[in-house]
Here is the input.
Amino acid sequence: MASITVLGAGLVGRAIVADLCQDYSTRVVDIDKDRLDAIARHYAVDTVSEDLADPAIVSELSAESDLVVCAVPGFMGFRTLRAIIEADVNVVDISFFNRDPFELDALANEHQVVAVVDCGVAPGMSNIVLGYHDSQMQVSRFDCMVGGLPLRRTWPYEYKAPFSPIDVIEEYVRPARLRINGETVTRAALTEAELVDLEQVGTLEAFNTDGLRTLLDTMQVPNMRERTLRYPGHCELMRVLRETGFFDTGKIRVGDDEVRPLDLTTALLFPLWQAEPGEDEFTVMAIEVEGVRDQQAELHRYELYDRNDATTGLSSMARTTGFTATAAARLVLDGDYDRVGISPPEYVGAAPGCFDRMLALLAARGVHYRHSVSPLTVD
Here is the structure.
């Protein structure tokens, strides 16, 4: 039986463990003993309390495994992934760090490591969809809208963070890169907001965020954009906070003390963004891929609507993100995906047979992508 180490026991880490421990010898590592105890009460896994900020510890634990799934916060992600690769172990990563993963490509090739990065829901499954269609047709447009939201709207933010809140704020600060008519352009995050109507959800607000990531380097699609979905009004509130300076990381003097505005903001916001135990929530995503295949213009649309699982206690964002990562892990462990080096998810989607197997593995876990295709008239 293959052995797997999961680094990180947060909401998504727990979903990863819940799936993989059914078929593999699974160990989960986190510095938070309460999180580990909660997982151990529900799943037959080994738990290790260690500080994953130490690359030496990461390498040591990774070397004892056949595969590692990295689910640490984004600010730790790059150095953690590097330590895993240096341990000569294949890895699936969902830390979504703010660095170019291809900086580690030479290292991964040197160590003959298969390293699938950004393998969540978006980025992740959205990339896999585009990678598949790019291998099948001449794609001219890719559009992705995605969000995780509480079912019950609560004033003032009408939002609960389904993953690391600090990574949410990073999305609201980092400039968004899009591609328009073949040119990569930059827009401020939280801009160009528009109302969209989605089945099963109703009216939400879509705005620019920097979710294309590796697609800007790997795909030659002339028009691409990724937008985040929230309840209407949330975007404007976040813009007010950002423009006032509440997300700034430089210290300012307040009385006799120096503080970072971001530290104060997170201390105030995060308790309000914490979901209540058992609170109902959902993840929604809409993807459009437009292009030409066999001289026929087509529009492919993928729709995801997933709710939290009351039986397992897993949130929809944890399920849709975590089970994408575990599906990729199974592909790597089974030898269905074996490309050495850094692999963003679009590479997995383009690999023969991997797209259909990913969809099947997700569907078997209750995560369903509804696909429709429509012919288009070519001008």
Observations:
- The chain has 13 helices and 18 strands.
- The mean pLDDT is 95.
